[in-house]
Amino acid sequence: LLASLVSDFERFKGRVRSFLSTPRDSPAYASLLEAAIEDAKQVFAQADAVTHAATVLTEQNADAVIMTVYGLVMVDLVLLMAAFHGIRANLVTPLHYLARMSRHIAEGDYGSRRMAPRAPDEIGLLAAAMNHMADKIEMNRKKIADDLVLLRQQEQSLKRLSWAVEHSPVDVMVTDREGRISYVNPKFSETTGYASEEIIGRN
Residue 181 is inside which H or E element, if any? Predict the structure, then answer.
């Protein structure tokens, strides 16, 4: 279109030069004027066509630019969502899990909650420390429970032994290292005639 416009414009200029160089009283004057007017119309028509084509091309390019920008925005949105998901999966969710684990430990539930091993980052180290702490607490709790059972058994044995000594048919006297009497059973008081308050503390 642009080449055709240039060609029509050159022809129009030639017509105008011929028209301007022709005397008014020449028989060709009127025909040259009509030809120049037709050439001008043709030039204007070609110029309109070129302008329309340029407008369409600009709009197409604008659409392409808009689509490119839209595509970039979508890519940014996808990257943002991926980053958000990564932050949630690697930071927020583990922190929530650690908070729940802390509450369970505070409530005495030491064995049921454990966090899966992670990469050795800050959260991974914290999770490993929490797991280790829960394991140690659970181990100590079981040891204390076992010790309490043993103490109760020993207490029962001591009670039985005390009952046996208290009700023994023979005299029983207990002294410390210096020979001072610290205990006598009722049978001792019955045999010797001394009450326990009178004899305890003597050598």
Answer: strand 181-184
CA-nearest of 73, 143, 79, 131 to 102 is: 131
In DSSP notation, 56-92 reads HHHHHHHHHHHHHHHHHHHHHHHHHHHHHHHHIIIII
What phi and psi values does residue 125 have, to the nearest 5 degrees?
A: -65, -40
Q: What is the pLDDT of residues 33-48, one digit of tens each?
A: 788 788 788 877 877 7
Which residue has tokens 């410390």?
176
Quick one: DSSP state of residue 116?
Answer: P
The phi and psi torsions of 183 (rounded to 5 degrees) equal: -160, 145
Q: How far apart are CA 7 and CA 14, in angstroms?
A: 11
Distance of CA 140 to the CA centre of its chain: 33
| 3-class state of residue 173 by DSSP | strand
- Helices first, then strands: H and E counts in the chain: 6, 2
Tell whether the model's pLDDT for residue 139 goes beyond 70.
yes
Which helix (DSSP H) or strand (DSSP E) does residue 122 occupy?
helix 122-166
User: What is the distance in angstroms between the CA of the first residue and the CA of the last residue of the chain?
Assistant: 137
CB 130 within 8 A of CB 106: no
Token representation of residue 18: 């011929």
**Size of the chain, expressed as the number of residues it contains:** 203
* pTM of the entire predicted model: 0.40
Backbone angles phi, psi at 184, to 5 degrees: -140, 145
